[in-house]
Amino acid sequence: MELNARIPSGPLEQKWDRHKFALKLVNPANKRKYTVIVVGSGLAGASAAASMGELGYQVRCFCFQDTPRRAHSIAAQGGINAAKNYQNDGDSIYRLFYDTVKGGDFRAREANVYRLAQVSVDIIDHCVAQGVPFAREYGGLLANRSFGGAQVSRTFYARGQTGQQLLLGAYSALERQIAGGTVAMFPRTEMLDLIVTEGRAVGIVTRDLVSGKVESHFADAVVLASGGYGNVFYLSTNAKGSNVTATYRAYKRGAAFANPCYTQIHPTCIPMSGDYQSKLTLMSESLRNDGRVWVPRAAGDKRAPGDIAEAERDYYLERKYPSFGNLCPRDIASRAAKEVCDEGRGVGETGLGVYLDFADSINRVGEDKIRERYGNLFDMYERITGENPYRVPMRIFPAVHYTMGGLWVDYNLMSTIPGLFVHGEANFSDHGANRLGASALMQGLADGYFVIPYTIGNYLAQVKPGSWRADSADAKAACVDATARVDRLLSINGTRTVDSFHRELGKIMWSDCGMARNQTGLAEALQRIPELRAEFWRSVRVLGRGEEFNQSLEKAGRVADFLEFGELMCRDALHREESCGGHFRTEHQTADGEARRDDDQFCYVGAWEYRGDDRAPVLHKEPLVFENVKLATRSYK
Amino acid sequence: MRITLKVWRQSGPHATGRFETYQADQVSPDMSFLEMMDVVNEDLIGKGKEPIAFDHDCREGICGMCSMVINGMPHGPHRATTTCQLHMRSFKDGDRVTVEPFRARAFPVLRDLAVDRSSLDRVMQAGGFIGVATGNAPEANAAPIAKDAVDRAMDAAQCIGCGACVAACPNASAMLFTAAKVSHLGLLPQGQPERYRRVLGMVGQMDIEGFGGCTNFGECQEACPKEIGVWTIARLNGDFLKGSLTARGDKRGGGDAA
To answer: Which of A28, A347, A366, B131 is deepest in the core (most CB within 10 A)?
Structure first.
């Protein structure tokens, strides 16, 4: 397997423009002869499907939800970054590029990140034209807020529902194309496998979640925009349906999986309350603009927060990172919270929580202003916890939120399988080992609106339209395999529910491949996961039939893939003998507990190639070359 | 807490449904309503009975997928709260709780509590967009928009497309859903060129889908988890009237995208 990133030559600032000119084109009359499948309808999928439909390609878009508008991008709260420099505070495309490379702990590809920063400004223009109601100042111009990991204000937002408004923009563009006949939409349809014939991706196998029908769909190219794999931890801020199946199945058909161990633990989530817990709820990072994080100075101090005097509080982020304070990047804020809880200074009943206190801000700007900024988040917090955050500090704790790893892609966003493109959270490309806040929305839309419309043409111009063979042995085998898998899940009829396996896997992943990892824990996980997987295939109980609406069956298929994928994550985490971004190996830290990178040995993208169920995957390395940014130890102090 | 649940069970769109009673013991007040349903389902699977099908995804009140009528109210008794954000502390030990799907002719039941709401997508296809293809946009700050107008547009744009307004309406009208989109786009300068085509197209499609007409009950506003007000319906009616009087040709508007 060759990892050719196809990074264009020339100066960083000119790579994308030069590349766009070098890319081959499909003439307008020929575009309608090509079919493209898009899997997923979140920001990355809906924007891609809509934009390709506008160009005249025949698009078939699939999502497992009942309508494309429900994809989990909808839940993103805080905002979207763009290098507009509207605030006159020193922002630029280069600074956004630099902040993203640094925030990613120097584990992302320079050229991709620079392009992302370049197109960020076009995204804002386009979304405003679509009618996205971004927040504005009284003068009528767009407002910005600051976000972690940056010292400029470049985040655009729509109250605490930025992801919703951006997704509804992309969704409305998609619906417009559906009405125009260029996009055929398949909701409640799940991808079960990728069809690869003669070395090219030419289709997918799907299951209709209402009728249960398993069938094949063919196309000249396939775009996966199926999101991240955070639900391998069972508890995460992801939607319940978010899963790894589409990308993992593509991996098993030959697409390299890059950096699976890079996961982002978000510092501001509502702490867990009991064993029945089904998901964790994020409180936007933007709250750290006005909230101060603290714990009691003394371990075991169980007094109510109001009874703890100022001198007995430890505002540990402000103490440890004076220049960024409460706005240090997510990985650093999360680890710092874990550290104080490990010292016994955590708050709340479980001791797994820290305070996020708005009292100072309420005194400074007034309760009304805080309500205007975060009202919906405060309401949500109160509904979930029964506590009023205007009166008592919020309790927060880190939770799995985003996965930087994903299918390996080149500069054109094409995977190691020709014809298979990967977008958004499903790919690995732009965030390195840690994503900065408000950058996921930017990347999803960049990929879909401004990258794929160019790069897909370059690929399609080199293949004859409709040149797949629906009756090829590979195509038939993929469909037969998928059906057999469904039948097998239904035939076990064991004693344990799907959820019980998922929870158990999640506990293993959280304790051994979560916020802090080490050799012993990972080795143990690598032993326990295969055992759990064997037990799953021996004793899972999935009731009902395949040819019907069957939610247990849907879950079972997804959990079966998580049970394999978790192993790949641990393997990747074990091999990466350094700490970087969201990947913290306890063996590799400085005396004051900060991550210690090893650029001599690990300055590369680790991409895994599947070699069979009973053989270990093979690691391939794409060296990361930094020609513009100097490799440095991240400091937010 | 102990809760007695009376739940609608229906094996498919054409099957006859019925209520079944289940006992949920050991319910914690900190559980969400859906977590309580998860526990009931785990118990059912343990007994070899098929679990209750229900739609849900984000479980944080924004995706709009959860859709239960709880004790006769879409999304249950709490104001401005989706089913997934409703917590069991809103109920008392020993309560009897009835759970049904969102009911409307335009929302056929797929199974148990899950319904097909694709009719709302088709209403969107009939004009719920601004016709701007990628790459055409002018500079975002070129045209200032008054903060009040954007704030008002945002109030309407918050719609999560759950369909509670339809389930609450005695006529099963989708007027609030449609009016929210018409108002969101109609309040912004970008939405003006298609303003009247949009409203005629979307209202026309609403009729085709079998949603009822609006007779100003206002139940929709009470049920809306995002507190979208009937002021949007007043706006829609104004636009519809003006559009009808000035329309030329195709009343379905909207749908000629490509």
So the answer is: A347
Alpha-carbon gap: A268 to the closest alpha carbon of chain B (Å): 15
Instruction: Sort out which chain B residues have CB atoms less than 8 A from A124's CB and list them.
Output: 140
Q: Which CA distances in Å does B81 have to A269, B1, B33, B60? A: 19, 22, 11, 10
What is the domain extent for residue B83? 3-111
b/e string for A372-398 if b means 16 or more Cβ within 10 A? ebbebbbbbbebbbeeebeebbbbbbb
Query: Coil, strand or helix: which one is A470?
Result: coil
Does the beta carbon of A183 lie under 8 angstroms from any beta carbon of chain B?
A: no
Whether A195 and A332 share a structural domain: no
Residues 388-407 of A with CB under 8 A from B: none
Give which of A229, A159, A246 is closest to A567, Cα–Cα. Answer: A229
Could you tell me if A381 and A477 lie in one domain?
A: no
Q: What pLDDT, on a 0 to 100 scale, did the predictor assign at position B249?
A: 52
Whether this model's pTM surpasses 0.95: yes
Q: Is A330 a catalytic residue?
A: yes
A279 and A261 in a single domain? The answer is no
Q: Give the per-residue pLDDT at B14.
A: 95
Spans of chain A below 50 pLDDT: none
In chain A, residues 474-493 whose CB comes closer than 8 Å to chain B: none
pLDDT digits (tens, 9 = 90+) for B104-125: 999 999 999 999 999 999 999 9
Indicate whether B84 belongs to any domain. Answer: yes
Q: Which of A130, A386, A499 sits opposite B89 (nearest CB)?
A: A386
Q: What is the ipTM of this complex?
A: 0.96
Q: Which of A292, A330, A576, A585 is catalytic?
A: A330
- Taking only the tens place, the pLDDT of each residue in B66-83 is 999 999 999 999 999 999
CATH label of the domain that carries residue A312: 3.90.700.10
Indicate the number of domains in chain A: 3
Are both A227 and A330 inside the same structural domain?
no
Contact criterion met (CB < 8 Å) for B130 and A130: yes
Please tell me if residue B172 touches chain A, with a CB cutoff of 8 Å. no
